[in-house]
Amino acid sequence: MQDPRLRLACVLLLSLAAFASIVGAIAVFLWWLAFTARQKSIRHVRALAAAFLLFILIAVVMILSGSDGLSYLVRMTAILLVGAWVYADSRPGDFLATGVWMGGKKTGFELGMTAEMAMGMAEGLFCDFSRIRIASVQKGVVWGPRSLLPAGRVLICDALRRADETAEILAVRGYRGGGTVCTRFAVTVPGIIATLCAVAAFIVAIFPRW
């Protein structure tokens, strides 16, 4: 999907649909099968698998406590797939352009820039985590739960350092807020069809509540 505005609309509609009901979650999964590259839309398989295992653990705890853990697992899996798709399908500048289009040169630009920085930081964290694992293997360190704490400490410190450096760069360049970006949105027929199907999934999800 080339138009970031349609992509954002699909994410919002599909997330709400998956959260609304298990029928909506199934509709979201079918949408994901039909309009994404499926396995190719997942850039970090291990991170996705770790999140899925966490959802399974929470679902098991909910089932043991008498709650509907299966419904939770289905809904969160659908939302996880949508999040993985939008993360893989996004391109640098998409959030900034969409923010300016929606909120103008002041608030919209700042929100878009914040989203762009968050996406860049997330990608940096994934790269740093991969480097930490490679370094651990080269040193002969057995990777396990005990390795997560020092690795997490390194990731947090690096993230804070990058945020501080980014703030310094913005200050040096004289940024005081607001801005603009010139872009052209490529609206395609497949993108419109995918968005309409996302609307349909949302309607199906909330229909039982009417």
Automatic annotation (TrEMBL):
Top-level taxon in the UniProt lineage: Archaea
Transmembrane segments: 6-33, 45-64, 185-207
Keyword Membrane among UniProt keywords: yes
Keyword annotations of the record: Membrane, Transmembrane, Transmembrane helix
Keyword field contains Membrane: yes
Protein's name according to its UniProt entry: Cobalt transport protein
